[in-house]
Amino acid sequence: MVGYIMLRERNTKLKQLLLNENKSLTVLHCSVYALLGVVSLIMAILNFITKKNLICWTTLAFTFGCAINLGLELINSKTKVIGWILFILEVIGLFTSFLISGNPDGFSALWILMIPSFGLLMFKRKMGSVFSLLMFLVLIAFLWTPLGDITLQYDYGNTFKMRFPILYIAFFALAFFFETVRSTISHEMQEARDRFFYLYSHDALTGTFNRYGFKEKQTDLFNERNHKRALAILDLDYFKDINDTYGHQKGDMVLQGLVDIIQSTIEDKAYLFRWGGDEFTLLFFDADTSKELCESFLNKVREASFDFSGNQVKITISIGLVYGADDVSIDVDDLIRQADNNLYQAKQSGRNCLIDSAYVKTLKKEEVRVIKNV
């Protein structure tokens, strides 16, 4: 059962990796470099045994080239591009040697037809097309010019020389069409996935994160060490009266206005979540500034007003804040519960205020038993 769960987690991580365009390309390139390097090494050994010295040294050089490309791919984005250019030159060089030698019986030249589909898959349409064009120019130089014809060590025949470049163009056209379709579908799927994730993690009315978004962000924040976080829960005072008096549409406008005030105050210092109804939660990146920020938007909300058909409607909020928690040992459920308790105290104290406290870790039953036994 444990093995099945681990396998499922690995499959999930692999799917996430492949869904990322840049990461999936890196995986593809590394796989191709490694696979071709191994294959070319095997071919070099076979060519050495069969005493085909030219192809032996060519394939062996290609093996070392693949190893270099693999290393460049893993260093950084700049060296990746260098690796791609080297790889294109290496493949063209290898296939040119195949074309010149023709061994065995002209069969090696047929591998050239792989380049359009292979190049477009690895380097996408722009760079893949350049790759294919360079190989096409090599074909023209060797098969359709007198100097190239003299260089060839194998007699391909006039029919082959005339038709092979045309067949290459046909392969490129098909590969370009299929890559265009694949790229379009992949782009649309990525956009649909992004839209789905946004709708999944955001509140439709206010545009803030929702409870699902909270789970994502709490993981990001509380997995980082040596930072003190803070959490606040707030809600609108007497919000039901606004809905009953002016209607839910006006109530929605109040919620949107409240979010605008809070977002403009916290800027990039906290995440804001709609917890449900008129209740919101904030995750502060720095506990030391959390109380100051809460007091700031608390005062801004007091000063704000909404014009509903000539009636100036004022609103207030109550806030429960817990701060100063060490995220290495924090229990998020504890943090939420204590912030909720502080919110309850704020309401009991007359609303329109902030109640804050330091985080106190609640011992679990297992930990209590250990202390008692000690």
Protein topology:
Blueprint: H1 2-19, H2 21-49, H3 53-75, H4 77-101, H5 115-143, H6 146-151, H7 158-201, H8 211-222, E1 228-236, H9 239-246, H10 248-266, E2 270-276, E3 279-284, H11 287-303, E4 305-308, E5 311-314, E6 317-326, H12 332-348, E7 354-358, H13 365-373
Parallel strand pairs: 6-7
Antiparallel strand pairs: 1-3, 1-6, 2-3, 4-5
Helix pairs in contact: 2-3, 3-4, 4-5, 5-7, 9-10, 10-11
Key traits:
single chain, 374 residues, alpha+beta, Alpha-Beta Plaits, 2 domains, 5-stranded mixed sheet, two-stranded antiparallel sheet, 13 helices, disordered C terminus
Short structural description:
With 374 residues, this protein is α+β, with helices and mostly antiparallel strands.
Question: How would you describe this protein?
Answer:
The protein has 374 residues and is α+β, with helices and mostly antiparallel strands. It has two domains: 2-197, no CATH class; 211-367, Alpha-Beta Plaits (2-Layer Sandwich), CATH 3.30.70. Helix content is 68%, strand content 12%. It contains 13 helices and seven strands. The strands form two sheets. It has a five-stranded mixed sheet, sandwiched between helices. Helix 3 (53-75) packs antiparallel against helix 4 (77-101) and helix 4 crosses helix 5 (115-143). The protein is elongated. The two termini are 36 Å apart. Residues 1-7 and 365-374 have low confidence and may be disordered.
